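Re: that chain you flagged

S.,

Sorry for the slow reply, it's been a week of failed gels. I finally had a moment to sit down with the sequence you sent. For the record, here it is as I used it:
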Amino acid sequence: MTLIATLDHADADLTACLARVMAAILKPGDVVALEGPVGAGKTHFARAFIRARQGEMAEDVPSPTFTLVQTYEDPMGTEIWHADLYRLTHPDELAELGLDEAMRDAVVLIEWPDHGGPLPDPLILGLEPLAGFPDLRRVTMAGSAARWGGMARLPAIARLVHRAGWSGARVVPLAGDASARRYFRLIDEDRSAVLMDAGPGSLGPYVAMTQWLRARGLHAPEILAADQAEGLLLIEDLGDDLVARVIQAKPDLAPRIYDRMTDLLVELHGHQPPEFVLPLDGPELARQVALFADYYPPAAGGGSGAEVAAVIERLHAELAGGVPAVLGLRDFHAENLVWLDDAPLGLLDFQDAVAVHPAYDLVSGLQDARRDVDPAIEQAQIARYVAATGVDEARFRAAYALLGAQRNLRIMGIFTRLAQRDGKRRYLAFMPRVWDAIQRDIAHPALAPLAAALKGIPAPTPAVIERIARG
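Prediction finished late last night. Pasting the structure tokens below so you have them in one place:
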């Protein structure tokens, strides 16, 4: 048994806030043993937890002191069992109550757990009133580190949410990105916000870029509250209308949306990039594309790609050298932009911004690994950017092809690594689209040396993808 975390000086609101945060995390088969004397707040915690899980379905949550067990269902169909074993006369009665079976398939909250005998690897949540402060308590979480170690950050999250004035909000998990960050939506009547859990010491780049973008009128989410030491931010909720979803639902909007994306880049590139971002220059692009040679050819069963990095570095010097760098958001694509109708596009996931050639983010938006972009739209947006900025069109198009090839080759390496090292095989389905983009890019006459360096490397056919998936 390991002490996982502690929350000190918790009043009733902060205790309930911790319950709401935990409600966003627990899953069927999780058992929470609520320990503490009479009046410590066990039922208060369970009530906040259950009502948070139920959301709009929330109902009254009476104490199960006399019924021993109360059951509830959340909108996802998960059963929640709330038990009070104080009046239990013998541990064998657990089976009669159905708790033994519920602990396998439901989320189970148990008050006075010591009256029921051993539990299957529970999270032990202790509530201890503070001497001399009847309205405050010390909350501890203990359990096996292997199963419950992820709970360690919940007190810090609850403290930030409480301090920011959102302690009554329901906490709902949001789909994350490919990083280790976690996101939650806070819903409190007619307002909402997003909580980002990025991990201790990791928020500097995000906060700096947020301030830089917002100072220039670009729509990065406003920071509402922060705990930078813990790596937690409460930020403006831009909503769910990601550009990717809007285009899928309303394909006829695509030309207008891509016009807005290109115009945003033109506006962004009109500003000198901040000094705190790192350069993404020829040597760094070459270093990053080495992922391709390291992973894809060996997994695909042909060629080596050993010359690719050196060729890209040389071509970058020839085709992009001397062009002033601009700020590149790096992951500028339809999954990281929010459509806000006539308002400026909302920006997400920009903490890895770099100083890079102007074509880099345009490629990122138009050669999207996750979705097909009409070739006519791609060509129209390249022309739109050239017309708006006055860059040399022939040289820009050559650099665009080079940066597209570099970016897509690196993505092929990343997808292979994700499948073979991390067991994340869903990205393999995107490989044919990425490979097709590479072939279009290296067809540019200026990229003939890169086409030669890729000769003999097999395309991601169904058989090759199956080979990669098998590892």
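What I noticed first: The chain has a mean pLDDT of 94.

Talk soon,
D.
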